[in-house]
Amino acid sequence: MTALDDIKVADFSWIAAAPIATKTLADYGATVVRIESRARLDTSRVTGPFRDDKPGLNRSGFFADLNTSKYDIALNLKHPDAYAIAKRLIAWADVVVESFTPSVMGGFGFAYEDIVRWKPDIVMLSSSMQGHTGPNREYRGYGGQGSALSGLHHVTGWPDRVAAGPKGAYTDSIAPRLAVAAILAALDYRERTGVGQYIDLSQVECAISTFMGAEVLDYTVNGRVAGRIGNRSPEAAPHGSFPCLGDDYWVALAAETDEHWIALCRVMGDPEWSRSEHFATMSARLGNVDELEELISAWTRTQPVHELVERLQAERLPSGVVYKSLELFEDPQLAYRNHFRQLDHAEIGMVGYNGPAHELSETPAVLRWAAPLLGEHTDYVMTDILGYTPAEVQAFAANQVLD
Q: For 246-304, where are the alpha helices, taking DSSP H only?
């Protein structure tokens, strides 16, 4: 038994942010039907990395990792005959998820205002860059633009360089966590009241509320505008990543208190320079952070990273290995918690997929099957879920409705 066995989801979303949310629902047992079309391919299907570096609609590791445990129907929503099929799918569902710009679902006849007239208990989530209201409601973009618009780019990088921004489409990874919580809250409300909910989710606002709260408050109260400080902290020194022995090995460490500093000095063998008045207090260390980091880097370069982290953590110092992606699959902690789940994909083959970051004791997540091929479950969805006859399905396919 999984937590969401009785929940049914019509998933009109694409790319990354909302599909991550529906993947979570699917891995916890919800029946998720993803709607796609060859008439307008999901960008993530044609974005690498690809298995064996061979591009293909069903070979993207990016798409695969975000779509486990889902059914997939090929349905060309621009075809006039697709409306009745999509309406029947929404009528079947408890939850509708979409991630287009605001006018798109309305153009299909499936804006929330349309659906709620004939299905008042529907829970619908619209995930977009800046929400479905306001002057920028039609703004199109990806998580990279979301990171910039939320202020994350401005505070990420080094003070003497251009804004770097966090890796990838960062808000695509922030928004789905809040989306899942909002959907579950709406389902709970519906169970208690019989009334559905509309969730208008803005990726930019998710990022601001989750990651920029302290910076917003500091400006509001103190008038200070946050800037780029690299890996440093205004409250701790040292604080950052330091090179270790070998080619491209790094340790992340921080000394957030005087006790941490004393422990770090002990691990370093109490070098003479560590007793300088330049580093006697946190204020002094912050004031001389350039010199401090150079001295610490000179020492860490002589240390094997894994052995060093063991010694640092034995002293209860905040520290860790800066892993390369390959090393994640070799990490004993991740292996013990079964983070990577092996699934057999029809084209990609047997590969490791990310499991959940949280585990429920009574109803754990189950990655039931690998990501679907484009339209892989069209016949099953049309007949077993929606009740069409095989003859009707063949007619729809012949007319390129199911494409």
A: 258-267, 282-287, 289-300
Do 78 and 184 belong to one domain? Answer: yes
193 and 88, same domain (yes or no): yes
Looking at the structure, tell me whether residues 180 and 63 fall in a common domain.
yes
CATH of the domain at 86: 3.40.50.10540
Burial 354-372 (b: 16+ CB within 10 A, else e): bbbeeeeeeebbbbebbbb
Report CA dihedral (59, 64, 68, 70) to the nearest 10 degrees: -60
DSSP string, 9-48: EEE---SSHHHHHHHHHHHTT-EEEEEE-TTS--GGGGSS
In a shared domain, residues 98 and 40: yes
Is residue 75 a part of any domain in this protein? yes
* Structure confidence by residue, pLDDT tens digits, 329-345: 999 999 999 999 999 99
Q: pLDDT of 385-396, one tens digit each?
A: 999 999 999 999
pLDDT in tens, 127-147: 999 999 999 999 888 899 999
Whether 227 maps to a domain, the answer reads no
Residues with active-site annotation: 172
Do 91 and 199 sit in the same domain of this protein?
yes
DSSP string, 102-140: HHHHHHHT-SHHHHHHH-TT-EEEEEESS-SSSTTTT--
Number of domains present in the structure of the chain? 2
**Structural domain of 282:** 239-243+249-323
Cα dist from 174 to 119, 257, 286, whole Å: 30, 30, 31
pTM: 0.94
